[in-house]
From TrEMBL:
Its EC number is 6.3.5.2. The gene is guaA2. It comes from the Bacteria. Residues 116-305 form the GMPS ATP-PPase domain. ATP binds at residues 143-149. It comes from Solibaculum mannosilyticum. One of its GO terms (molecular function) is GMP synthase activity. This is GMP synthase (glutamine-hydrolyzing). InterPro entries: Class_I_gatase-like, GATASE, GMP_synth_C, GMPS_ATP_PPase_dom, NAD/GMP_synthase, Rossmann-like_a/b/a_fold.
């Protein structure tokens, strides 16, 4: 592998992605890695010192540890003025030259092997999972999202019936999602799957709760409670599978990079329920997770699904959730997704969904006055969800969606298109 040392550059992950795209495995490590830590990493062929704009951190200049300079490994210094550090190669900043210098370093100087691919990754992980778990049992909260689905598929391949997946349907999932989880994991892959329909429980707790943050807290806390109850019914579980991926770790903040967001995992289980974690995807970037899912036989619409918030439709059924408005939301969202698929927009637009607010407007239906909710369409593009732009949807597509939603979804008599970028709006309405 090639080790990238984090000297505070925001480009660490870009370089890591570039190297992996050459078929060579790479990991990002802290700048002050010790000789022992470096020695413990398997098959290190070279080190990249990626000094970025934060190289002087809090007034203190940081550099790689002596262990790195004394390791005898080929070193490449990436200096952001494009200058070479003494005795080290330099990396020009022009895009085209970048890849050439990188290829030369990785293959000519480091003699790294092109052996990073999904088949090898899956084979290695299966061995590692079996070694870690032995004949013990693993529990996994399977939401049906990309990461938990890929972990489930990998664990099923590695340990079969030693894995139990728990799918909590909180009643706020999109149309067809719980059914797909049961179909793919239980019926096709033969997994032990505990399917919990907790819809009534969640909707009862959420009754008359209009504040978005209160709704989020209730959904999060209730989820942990239901999962915990199911876990307690199972005997002899020692491990908890988790869909942690590399950006979760990298974005948790290193010594030199600014904290982007906290690393959130299932967490929150009671003190007496401590499991050892199995996190087989923790070194993969998102696109690699998807490739892994495809290689494991998961369907495209599961592997390439758009991001979906934990509180689900709960934060799109604005204000206090009612069952009839929630159904109108679920149906309008399903129509939007179907029409985006047909129009070839599904892979192009980062996130798209409908929102149903808790007010009504007057309309005309079958020559009579109607008084119904509007459905709001939101379709945004973003790189990191911190800012977002609006997708310009073809007028004909919008007209077709409007026609279908207003005629097929009970309770909706208007369709609106949200033109607000982030900022000033957020992606979700709540
Ligand atoms: P906002 O609305 O903050 O959304 O612009 C940015 C991204 O985060 C998702 N999101 C959430 N995801 N729990 C989640 O797991 C949440 O409470 C939550 N709120 C927003 C949102 O869908 C978008 O992708």
């Amino acid at each position: 592998m090639i080790v990238i040392l984090d000297l505070g550059s925001e480009q660490n992950t870009l370089i890591a992605r570039d190297i992996r795209s050459l078929g060579v495995y790479t990991e990002i490590h802290p700048h002050d890695i010790t000789a022992d830590q470096l020695g413990a990493l398997p098959n290190v062929r070279g080190v990249i010192l990626n000094g970025g704009p934060n190289r002087v951190v809090d007034g203190v200049s940081i550099d790689a540890s002596d262990a790195v300079y004394q390791s005898g490994l080929p070193l490449l210094a990436v200096d952001h003025q494009g200058k070479a550090d003494q005795n080290l190669g330099s990396w020009p900043q022009e895009e085209e030259a970048r890849m050439d210098v990188l290829k030369q370093f990785v293959f000519d100087q480091c003699k790294a092997q092109k052996n990073w691919n999904m088949e090898n990754f899956i084979a290695d992980q299966i061995d590692l999972i079996r070694e870690q778990v032995g004949d013990k049992k693993v529990l996994l909260a399977l939401s049906g999202g990309v990461d938990s689905s890929v972990v489930a598929a990998l664990l099923i391949r590695a340990i079969g019936k030693q894995l139990t997946c728990v799918h909590v349907n909180h009643g706020l999932l999109r149309k067809g999602e719980p059914e797909q989880v049961v179909e793919v994991f239980q019926k096709q892959m033969g997994a032990n799957l505990v399917y919990v329909d907790a819809t009534d429980r969640f909707l009862t707790k959420l009754e008359n709760v209009a504040d978005p943050e209160k709704k989020r807290k209730i959904i999060g806390a209730e989820f942990i409670r239901v999962f915990e109850e199911e876990a307690r019914k199972l005997d002899g579980i020692q491990f908890l599978g988790q869909g942690t991926i590399y950006p979760d770790i990298v974005e948790s903040g290193t010594k030199t990079a600014k904290m982007v967001k906290s690393h959130h995992n299932v967490g929150g289980l009671p003190e007496d329920m401590q499991f050892e974690l199995v996190e087989p995807l923790k070194m993969l970037f998102k696109d690699e997770v998807r490739a892994c899912g495809t290689a494991l036989g998961l369907p495209d619409n599961m592997v390439y699904r758009q991001p979906f918030p934990g509180p689900g439709l709960g934060v799109r059924c604005l204000g206090a959730i009612t069952r009839d408005r929630l159904e109108a939301l679920r149906e309008s969202d399903a129509i939007l997704r179907e029409e985006f698929d047909k129009a070839g927009l599904a892979g192009k637009v980062w996130q798209y969904f409908t929102v149903v607010p808790d007010f009504k407007s007057v309309g005309v239906r079958d020559n009579a006055r109607s008084f119904e909710w509007p459905a709001i369409i939101r379709a945004v593009n973003t790189v990191d969800a911190m800012t977002a732009t609006i997708e310009q949807i073809d007028w004909d597509v919008l007209a077709r969606i409007t026609q279908r939603i207003t005629h097929e979804v009970p309770g909706i008599n208007r369709v609106l298109y949200d033109l607000t970028p982030k900022p000033v709006g957020t992606i979700e309405w709540e």
